[in-house]
Design brief:
With 233 residues, this protein is an alpha+beta fold.
């Protein structure tokens, strides 16, 4: 890892290990600047590597350099103390990618079509805003139900793709082993290349599933807030 580099760690969610990516910027001095959730409200903070990684392995994000490390750090520190976390529009990856490239993007969300602008789901944009005022209880509940249905559809599709990728990786592993048993190293190398490609797809799909889980949890929290607000009216 290097100063100003965008990094991420696979964090656990519930009983599922390594379910989602958490991004940050390497401070170059044993610290990481990232959207920390150590407090009740997520805040961009400068923490130790241990506080960022939770004891898990830290990975670099492979991408072309846009800014020098010094400028990346300057951009990251300019937003210290910010408390505007939004899973769909301003999550930890949005922040880290903005620091390194100038583009506020979340590749994990975009890869499986959950970028709000792509899906044209205004209800998700409104539900992500905790200050949103609904019109009627019936409309609010209908919006939540529609959003949950969209998430469930995306999750089931992605899960099926992940399971297929696992099966493909296992099949190529068996092909490679059989080729080695028959002294066909050329075929074994080709099969292992296919296995690596399938493994990379598994990693991507796993990250997609983690974002869907986090999105549903965020939505459920917002629904509880909205229900409490409506019951108090």
């Amino acid at each position: 890892m290097a100063k100003g580099e965008q990094i991420y760690v696979l964090r656990d969610l519930g009983m599922v290990p390594g379910l989602y990516q958490h991004h940050g910027i390497d401070g170059g001095d044993g610290t990481v600047i990232h959207y920390s959730k150590a407090r009740q409200e997520a805040e961009i903070s400068r923490t130790s590597y241990d506080a960022f990684s939770w004891g898990n392995r830290v990975y670099p994000v492979r991408q072309s350099l846009i800014y020098t490390p010094e400028i990346v750090i300057e951009r990251a520190t300019s937003r210290l103390g910010e408390r505007q976390y939004d899973l769909l529009q301003n999550n930890c990856e949005h922040f880290a990618t903005w620091c390194t490239t100038g583009r506020s993007e979340s590749r994990q969300l975009a890869n499986f079509g959950l970028r709000v602008d792509q899906l044209n789901l205004p209800e998700l944009r409104r539900l992500a805003d905790r200050d949103r005022h609904t019109t009627t209880p019936a409309e609010a509940r209908a919006n939540f139900q529609k959003a949950l249905g969209d998430i469930a559809t995306a999750y089931n599709t992605t899960l099926a793709d992940q399971q297929a990728a696992y099966k493909e990786a296992d099949e190529w592993h068996r092909v490679a082993q059989k080729a080695l048993d028959n002294s066909r190293e050329d075929l074994a190398r080709a099969a292992l290349h296919r296995k690596v490609a399938a493994s990379k797809r598994i990693e991507l799909l796993t990250a997609q599933l983690s974002d869907l889980v986090e999105l549903e949890l965020d939505l459920q929290r917002n629904r509880a807030i909205a229900e409490a607000r409506l019951s108090g009216d």
